[in-house]
Amino acid sequence: MVVSGKLFLVIKAMPIDEIARRLSGYRVSQEPPQGAPQDFKFITEVKALSRRGSSLTGVIAYDTVMDVNQHGQVVKVPKTYEAPFLFTPYSSRMYLTVVAKKWRANAIAKKINDIIFVEKNVVPLSIPPRLMASMVTQKTEDQVVTFFDGIQSVDKLSLYGESLSASTLYENYYKSGGIWYAVARSKRYGQVVGLGRNGVVVAFSLKEVDKFFDYVEDEVIPSLGEQIADANISGQG
């Protein structure tokens, strides 16, 4: 099983207790979208809020419609999506982790932002290449996939294979561009993980969301926090 998530930066940190207060009991019913079953209640709600040390976990659930082919006709069918999330204060910063694939995580982060904050305060990460390279080399080993960008006349370039970081090709591309995404083994956890400069984190062979949160809080966020003073990581992604 694969657990995939994405990290976001909370620009103006807020006390965890206040975030919990604003999320607690949130439940909003909306009119069904055009073409959807009109007898179905479309609800967005936050549930399962719980303190996790100094952090806060919860689940956001929301209803949407999906198009289904039924005997040659497209029928709109209601579907409920649920996504665990985690607010983590670290040093003077705060991070939000949403367990969902990239595009859905972006939409969910916006929903959470709109519930808690009046203005835009939750933004995607854009980790600088040097910081990304440091995270990969210090926290992982046995790289098997690495994507580079910033190489002249090339949009993105990928290398596959064992012990990539020891190869001449890797060294040449590393010097010419920056690591965009890497799949490697965590030195501490032994798990094969994927890390992206846009805050995407993928844990392969993991089944429990709690263990995914452990990895994010123990490995990823401290790596950002240790070197964040000289890095501007708020951006698009």
Question: Can I get a quick summary?
Answer:
By secondary structure, the protein is an alpha+beta fold. The chain has 5 helices and 12 strands. Strands 1, 2, 3, 4, 5, 6, 7, 8, 9, 10, 11 and 12 form a 12-stranded antiparallel sheet that branches.
What would the keywords be for this entry?
globular; 26% helix; 5 helices; 237 residues; 12 strands; TATA-Binding Protein; 12-stranded antiparallel sheet; 2 domains; alpha+beta; disordered C terminus
Architecture overview:
The protein has helices at residues 16-23, 102-116, 129-139, 168-176, 209-226, and strands at 2-10, 27-30, 42-52, 55-70, 73-90, 93-98, 122-124, 140-149, 156-160, 178-186, 192-196, 200-204. The chain is α+β, with helices and mostly antiparallel strands and 237 residues long. The protein has 2 domains: 2-122, 2-Layer Sandwich (TATA-Binding Protein); 129-230, no CATH class. Strands 1, 2, 3, 4, 5, 6, 7, 8, 9, 10, 11 and 12 form a 12-stranded antiparallel β-sheet that branches. A hairpin with a 2-residue loop joins β3 (42-52) and β4. Residues 228-235 have low confidence and may be disordered.
The CATH class of the largest domain, by name, is Alpha Beta
Query: Structurally, how many domains make up the residues?
Result: 2
How many separate helices? Answer: 5
CATH topology of the largest domain: TATA-Binding Protein
The total strand number stands at 12
- Which H/E pattern describes the elements? EHEEEEEHEHEEHEEEH
Tell me about the largest β-sheet: 12 strands, antiparallel
- Write the CATH architecture name of the largest domain: 2-Layer Sandwich
Q: Percent of residues in helical segments?
A: 25-40%
